[in-house]
Design brief:
Structural class: alpha/beta
Largest sheet: 5 strands, antiparallel
Radius of gyration: 58 Å
């Protein structure tokens, strides 16, 4: 209750004071108005008296003149002159007085005064003349003075009227000014009142905040006191101002021991003392903050016993009544670092174990595949000999078991390669419809054995696409094989459809089998997962097929999933980006639909073709193929020579290799296009062993007309010539590519062996790996023209791996492993050849 009385006491007093001020201002204003009115009235009375006195002086002058007219004495004339002078001075005062300035502003008043002055000035010679002349002119003077009587009466009345008006205006202005003053004072008082109320409110708010601050300080003291981190407060002189119990526990000093002591002597290890002093001196002199406000910093500290241990420190400055202070939060991280070391060691051991396991699987799979190949080859040869029916049955059983084992080994090798990040994609142009048909043909026997039918359904907008056909086929085969396993006397449908307006193609494999439970659908793509179904006794497998499919789809930048209900079948789907092949001449599958058809133009006889290829064998193959269809050829070994030849004569077609020394194919094409030479419009076809969509786009931007993917085939070459040169080829298409001559095959094998040896030297001596990529590129071209497809793929993989693994740990070992695989393939394929 007393608090409520005090709450209203101060505002009441403030309001009373304000009321008293308002009343006082009101009385003061009224009194000032009376005084101003009185002052204004006195001034007006004084001025009007002067005007009336002028009129009296005129009458006195007139009386003196009349007296002198009847009195011939000198005294009478002197009185006339004296009264004239007084009246004249009065008129001059009226003409020059500042108080009468507003009166003289009236035109009639000013004209009347001028007339009076003129009359008086005309009388001056008579007044100042001899007495006889003055006495003689008294009659005229009396008449002139009588005429001035009315004028002076008019001036007097006008003055009264003007002064009355001016006095009223002045009083009105003073009254308005006083009113404005009163309003201003009232406003000022209101502002002051508001200010007083604001101050009172601020005072109360300050009191509440003070209470809140006190409460917060109490909480903060509790938090700091119970914190598990040590808190040290140090002054600019380096002495401890405060600490919490955690700091006592961490460093072993009692609070009484620490307060006032130098912090550096208590907790800074000897080997850090000099650095600490230098940092403190630098901050105090320059303000530089090395670790102040930088967050968590790991340092070393020492306790009372001298033990040095790691700490995590956060320190910053604050202002206090004693100036700048340093507040530090310190945590002993000895146990944490010990646990981290143990975790790192455990992780390293686990990673080493995983790497060892992956390496073991890869090595064992690779080593098992070689003897398996020999066993399967031997069984195939044995099946061609004279065997009894029973023996053929044993051979077929061993062959099927060997093929199954080889499939498992290849699956493990694929997983190991993917886990090691060595899966390399090789984009090429292909028809997805033909791909699906190839899968159906390859799986037809297995499907029929279970009584299943294989169907294909595709959209009309697919067309040729760019992607890794081999990997894509592997995914679809795995999905189809999985569907065959779990479907009896049913139907398996393969479908493909392009997303409208996009680059993705969605493939689906739907079956009418047993289906998959909802709780199992999330793990069917895990490795080594085999679901427990009613066909479990009859279905074989390692559970790797779907895991490999998931890895390959993700490697191609896609996604995979399944939709299924038990008893209603399953539908596996995956979506991968497959750009359309419109940008590439249909080199491998035939000429573009809008190009000229075979036989629609003149013969290729006499057609001149410039072949730009740095590999002599590749040039020889291209020359042989072009010569065989009646073309004339000119050869260049690099881009510089191609530019020179292209500037000398015109060609009907230019075949341009991409990767060449000195000047590459892209730069050479740009130069040819930018000059106004004879080949600025000649079709230029890129020759490359592998090309991603972005590379093909780059080729076209440089001015290339089309792309031929190595190995160069007669069909692709003929189609390209017919398309770009509008010529027909008059040779029968037997469907069989001409074989490489024995001489060229031997030279190609020798160069491949030389490239392998050189690449092994590059890796062994630790030289720049870009040289390894160049050699792998050339070897891939040689393998392509030699018909060694697997070896070509191995060299392409090695070339791409050089860029993908650049700067990574274990780069040399990974490249050496890929090179060893290529060497092994060359040895086996060379022996087979």
């Amino acid at each position: 209750m007393h608090r409520d009385k005090r709450r209203f006491f101060v505002p009441t007093i403030v309001l009373a004071v304000i009321g008293a001020c308002v009343v006082g201002i009101w009385f003061l204003s009224a009194d000032a108005r009376r005084e101003i009115d009185a002052l204004a009235t006195a001034n007006a009375d004084s001025t009007q008296w002067s005007i009336a006195q002028t009129e009296v002086e005129l009458l006195t002058l007139e009386t003196a003149v009349l007296t002198a007219m009847h009195d011939n004495s000198q005294a009478a004339l002197r009185e006339v002159r004296r009264r004239f002078d007084v009246f004249y001075s009065r008129i001059r005062v009226l003409q020059r007085s500042q108080q009468l300035e507003r009166v003289r502003e009236e035109p009639e008043v000013a004209e009347t005064l001028e007339h009076a002055i003129m009359v008086l000035d005309n009388a001056l010679p008579l007044i100042d003349g001899p007495d006889a002349e003055l006495r003689a002119g008294l009659d005229d003077l009396e008449e002139q003075i009588a005429d001035l009587r009315n004028d002076l009466r008019f001036v007097t009345l006008e003055s009264v009227r003007v002064f009355a008006r001016l006095a009223g205006q002045q009083r009105e202005r003073v009254a308005n000014a006083l009113l404005d003053l009163a309003v201003l004072i009232v406003v000022l008082i209101l502002v002051l009142s508001t200010t007083v109320f604001a101050l009172v409110w601020s005072l109360r708010l300050g009191q509440r905040r003070t209470a809140e601050i006190a409460l917060a300080q109490s909480r903060q003291r509790t938090i700091v006191g119970t914190s598990i981190d040590g808190v040290l407060v140090v002054g600019r002189d380096g002495r401890v101002l405060d600490c919490n119990p955690a700091a006592e526990r961490i460093f072993g000093y009692a609070r009484e021991e620490a307060l006032g002591a130098r912090m550096a002597d208590l907790i800074i290890p000897d080997h850090l003392q000099q650095a600490h002093r230098a940092a403190m001196d630098e901050h105090l002199s320059t303000g530089r903050r090395r670790i102040l406000g930088k967050g968590l910093v790991q340092l070393e500290a020492k306790d009372k016993s001298g033990r040095i241990f790691p700490v995590e420190l956060s320190i910053d400055t604050a202002e206090s009544t004693e100036g700048e202070i340093f507040v530090s939060f310190i945590r002993d991280i000895s146990d944490r670092q010990h646990a981290e070391r143990e975790l790192v060691e455990a992780r390293d051991k686990a990673l080493a174990g995983e790497e060892a396991k992956a390496e073991f699987l890869a090595v064992m799979s690779h080593e098992m595949r070689t003897p398996l190949g020999g066993i399967l080859g031997g069984l195939e040869l044995l099946s061609g000999t004279d065997l009894t029916g029973r023996q053929k049955g044993f051979v077929d059983m061993m062959s099927r078991s060997g093929q199954l084992l080889l499939h498992h080994v290849n699956s493990v090798l694929d997983i190991s390669r993917d886990d090691a990040g060595k899966t390399v994609l090789r984009p090429e142009l292909f028809d997805p419809v033909e791909l699906l048909m190839d899968v159906v043909n390859s799986q037809a026997v297995e499907a029929e054995a279970k009584g299943n039918r294989l169907l294909v359904s595709t959209g009309d907008d697919l067309g040729p696409v760019i992607g890794d056909r081999t990997r894509l086929m592997q995914v679809i085969v795995n999905l189809v094989a999985n569907a065959i396993k779990f479907t009896r006397d049913g139907q398996i449908t393969l479908s493909a459809m392009r997303d409208p307006g996009g680059t993705d193609v969605e493939f689906r494999v739907a079956d009418t089998g047993i289906g998959i439970a909802a709780e199992d659908q999330a793990r069917v793509f895990d490795d080594f997962v085999t679901l427990d179904t009613r066909y479990a006794r009859e279905v074989e497998g390692t559970g790797l097929g779907l895991g490999i499919a998931r890895r390959l789809v993700m490697a191609m930048g896609g996604e995979i999933g399944v939709v299924s209900q038990p008893g209603s079948g399953s539908e596996f789907w995956f979506r991968v980006p497959l750009p359309t092949g419109d940008a590439i001449a249909l080199d491998q599958d035939g000429a573009a639909s809008d190009g000229p058809k075979a036989g629609s133009g003149p013969s290729t006889s006499g057609l001149t073709v410039l072949i730009v290829e740095d590999n002599e064998i590749n040039r020889a193959v291209a020359v042989e193929m072009l010569t065989g269809i009646g073309c004339e050829t000119v050869q260049a070994s690099d881009g510089a020579e191609a530019q020179r030849l292209a500037g000398q004569r015109g060609f009907d077609l230019i075949l341009m290799d991409i990767s060449m020394p000195r000047i590459d194919g892209i730069s050479a094409t740009r130069q040819i296009r930018e000059t106004s030479g004879p080949n600025s419009l000649t079709p230029i076809i890129a020759l490359t062993a592998h090309a991603l969509p972005k590379d093909i786009e780059r080729f076209h931007q440089a001015g290339m007309t089309g792309v031929l993917i190595k190995p160069l085939t007669r069909k692709s070459l003929v189609d390209s010539v017919e398309q770009h040169c509008s010529r027909r080829v008059d040779i029968p298409d037997t469907g069989v590519e001409p074989a490489l001559s024995a001489e060229l095959a031997q030279r190609a094998a020798s160069e491949i062996a030389e490239h392998l040896s050189h690449m092994e030297t590059v890796i062994g001596e630790g030289r720049a790996f870009h040289e390894l990529a160049d050699r792998a590129h050339m070897a891939a071209g040689l393998a392509a023209v030699s018909g060694l497809a697997a070896l070509q793929e191995a060299f392409v993989t090695l070339e791409l791996a050089v860029a993908e693994l650049e700067g990574e740990e274990g780069e040399a070992d990974a490249l050496a492993e890929l090179l060893a695989e290529a060497r092994d393939l060359f040895r086996r394929e060379g022996q087979a050849g």
